[in-house]
Give the backbone structure.
Amino acid sequence: MAKVTMTVNGKSVTREVEGRTLLSAFLREGLNLTGTHVGCDTSQCGACTVHLDGKQVKSCTVFAVDAAGGDVRTIEGMANKDGTLSRLQQAFQDHHGLQCGFCTPGMVMAAAALLEQNPKPTESEVRHHLEGNICRCTGYHNIVKAVLAASGQDVGQIAAE
Amino acid sequence: MRDFQFVKPSSIADAVKALSSEGAVALSGGQTLIPTMKQRLNTPDVLVSLTGIAEMTGVCRGDSGLHIGAATPHATVAAEAGAHYPALACLAAGIGDPAVRSRGTIGGSLANNDPSACYPSAVLGSGAVIVTNARQIAADDYFLGMFSTALEEGEIITEVRFPIPEKAAYVKFDQPASRFALTGVFVAKFASGVRVAITGASNDGVFRWAEAEAALSASFTPDAIEGLSLSGDDMISDLHGTGAYRAHLCKVLTKRAVLAAC
């Protein structure tokens, strides 16, 4: 067991973990932050996406001990300070970017990472960026629309094909 | 997953020492190693993280071309190599997905030598030099077959040095589920001749297509390889494509890479 300290959503947290404890388990079981979903646990689906030191990572494919000292942001840290949905989260609701919602935390974290690097992405850039996040409900069109809307672009002309 | 002791040294010397212990395995970005550990295909006693070593990270222009620290993530190469070696930056920007590119490293990819990984084609196609804690290895001597390299037990790749070609391009035919190359071709034109390296095709991993190199060295145009073909007999055959299909892709993608490089 090793003592691991990191910053999660702005707060410093310390827990005893095994070497094999994944960052996803550290967040969900250690900190009760169950908004980070584990879909496949094989690095394929992206549902467990969080930000580590400002970069999106699959938390099921990072060891908690390796993230020691890091700055982690999860879906629980995405809402506005007053508890209302962030612009990106609100866009997912407004544009029906989710159905069952299982992939949504990962989609929001991946999209937020994109918008930080590229505040006005094209539709093709959004699709390319979300390649590591799998959704089995929406067919992606409304997710892409939500991300474009959150970037302040007019999505009136984007039709689901 | 079986538990292990985790160490994260901050110098190459400490990492080499840690790796000399019984059952020690090096961890870089972990984007291949962690999934294989979950399946118990790899069960280290000690895991030595190489991503806390400052001297093994970064992209810089050096005397012999572009020098990339072995623990540099793909996303950093994609962002920083473009001004010096655009084809290499472009290759890095297409590996896996954004989360994989945040963590996965060039040294990790080369040490693993997956037969369908992108980086081996750039390293072999550029005639790069692989620098380890002990020596320098020419790309032509490094790749020894599927998941097999010239690295000795406990040897660590510290840096990769790429000569910068006059023209180059990488064209990857995506395998959209795994995001590896179904087949990928890296073409690089130097004053001394053209190099063509192909990944995702041969059962022996990345290889150079000598006949195409000769033809393209004489005339760097897609038509130059029109009369050439590769046999699919020794190529990877799986549910995504037969050996014959991959052999066909080798030629099509080589032409596309030449066109993209021109």
